[in-house]
Amino acid sequence: MDKVVATALEAVADVPDGASLAVGGFGLSGVPGVLIHALYERGVTAVSVVSNNCGAMESGLAVLLAAGRIARVTGSYIGGNKEFARQYLSGELEVELIPQGTLAERLRAGGAGIPAFYTPAGVGTQVAEGGLPWRYDGEGGVALASPPKEVREFDGTEYVLEHAIRTDYALVRAAKGDRHGNLVFNRSSRNFNPLAAMAGRITIAEVEELVEPGEIDPDAVHLPGIFVQRVVALTPEQAADKKIEQRTVSAPATKERVNG
User: Fold this and answer.
1) What is the DSSP secondary structure assignment for residue 140, as one 8-state letter?
2) Which of 65, 94, 104, 154 has the greatest number of CB atoms lying within 10 Å of its CB?
3) How far apart, in whole angstroms, are the C-alpha atoms of residue 247 and residue 235?
4) Other CB atoms closer than 10 Å to residue 207's CB: what's the count?
5) Which residues pair with 232 in a beta bridge?
6) Which ranges of the chain does DSSP label H, i.e. alpha helix?
7) Mind telling me which Gene3D superfamilies this protein's record contains (predicted)?
8) Which of 234, 229, 203, 248 shows the shortest CA–CA distance to 33?
9) Residue ranges of the domains in the chain?
10) For domain 8-115+164-240, is the CATH number 3.40.1080.10?
11) What backbone torsions phi and psi does residue 178 show, to the nearest 5 degrees?
């Protein structure tokens, strides 16, 4: 089955307002920016996003966030995204912060058909006991807090019950993909993209390099095409457009330092 769609706009044409989206990427690595921008161009709003973070440097999900198009975020990291922090603290945005490993497993479980699982992460904290601020009231108070979760003991250790995540759509970016939707991810972009793709009922992948079926060694496939419904081939310019969140350079070596 050829899953290639001509344009990103066509690929996201049926995403409605209020949809839930699992979005791949780790920091600025492997972020499906072309598909996100297509949603922005369509004017889609009030979406609920599940992603490790919510974009940065006016790229990725930050495009939708800055436009007020995101209603809820389930993620692990706010980082240096000042607009994310502002909207959260002002009560404009509902945010569920959870441990990063738990987020990864909730996405994977959703794709694997596992409804829930027990994990020791968060036991003895507000993650399990409830009370984490999901939404502020804009005046410093908490308008909506997380509920308590079930905790059980197994072999003398306590574990908290976490529910799997399934979303209406998933948006991911792959280094390489074929027309059947088999995908290969590059390095740290593999952290969340395969898991987000598994969690989506309709998964759309933008690929930097589109190849024909059979050109990817089956042993090299990171995500099989069964999880992918649509593929968008990026232009060379789009594939090369990769942001760097923080540039760190060493101080130039002085003669004294070189000579010891």
Assistant:
1) S
2) 65
3) 26
4) 24
5) 206
6) 8-11, 33-42, 62-66, 82-90, 100-112, 126-129, 193-199, 236-240, 255-259
7) Glutaconate Coenzyme A-transferase
8) 234
9) 8-115+164-240
10) yes
11) -110, 180
Q: Are 198 and 223 contacting, i.e. CB atoms less than 8 angstroms apart?
A: yes
| Cα R_g (the chain), whole angstroms | 20
Largest CA distance in the chain: 65
How is residue 241 written in tokens? Answer: 């457009």
Separation of alpha carbons 233 and 6, rounded Å: 8
Per-residue pLDDT of the chain (260 residues; tens, 9 = 90+): 899 999 999 999 999 999 999 999 987 889 999 999 999 999 999 999 999 988 876 788 999 999 999 999 999 988 778 899 999 999 999 999 999 999 999 999 999 999 999 999 999 999 999 999 999 999 989 999 999 999 999 999 999 999 999 999 999 999 999 999 999 999 989 999 999 999 999 999 999 999 999 999 999 999 999 999 999 999 888 888 877 766 777 777 766 555 55
Cα–Cα distance for residue pair 143/239, rounded to 1 Å: 42
What the block records as the tokens of 138 is 């804009």
CA-based nearest residue to 193, from 215, 170, 214, 177: 170
Phi and psi angles of residue 95, each rounded to the nearest 5 degrees, phi first: -135, 125
Residues 6+ apart with CB under 8 A from 169: 12, 15, 19, 20, 21, 22, 200, 201, 202, 203, 204
